[in-house]
Amino acid sequence: MVATSNQSVVDFALVDNRKDRPIRHLIFAPKPVLEYAVVHEMCHLKHRNHEPEFWDLVGRVLPDWQERKTWLDKNEHMLGWEKVEPLV
Ligand SMILES: [Zn+2]
């Protein structure tokens, strides 16, 4: 199965329903990070958890997934629709 539109990406996100994380904002993420999010959700079609087998599968598709995930974990809050107030 291949994502053909941003709506497909949103649909994939519904697989990972343990997170309360809207994926629509990822359209503003760098393409490698968006790819990671799609691959992550597609791998949940086989493994509905984050056990080592899941991450092994992610790694077979994206060997550098950890770098992409680190970027997302660090910057995701900057991708929201809400205005981000500067730190004082
Ligand atoms: Zn997940």
Q: Gyration radius, to the nearest Å?
A: 13 Å
H/I helix tally: 4
Intertermini distance: 46 Å
Sheet with the most strands, sense and barrel status = none
Q: Helix coverage percent of residues?
A: 40-55%
Strand content: under 5%
Question: Spans of 5+ residues with little confidence (pLDDT < 50)?
Answer: none
Based on secondary structure, the structural category is mainly alpha
DSSP E strands, number:
0
How would you describe the shape? elongated
> What compounds sit in this structure?
zinc ion
Q: Overall mean pLDDT score?
A: 79
Order of helices and strands: HHHH
What's the short version?
The protein is an all-alpha fold. 48% of the residues lie in helices and 0% in strands.
Verbal overview:
The chain is mostly helical. The N and C termini lie far apart (46 Å). Helix 2 (31-43) packs across helix 3 and helix 2 (31-43) crosses helix 4. The chain has a domain at 29-79. The chain has helices at residues 6-13, 31-43, 52-61, 65-75. The structure holds zinc ion. Zinc ion is lined by residues 16, 40, 44, 50. Residues 16, 40, 44, 50 line the site of zinc ion (ZN).
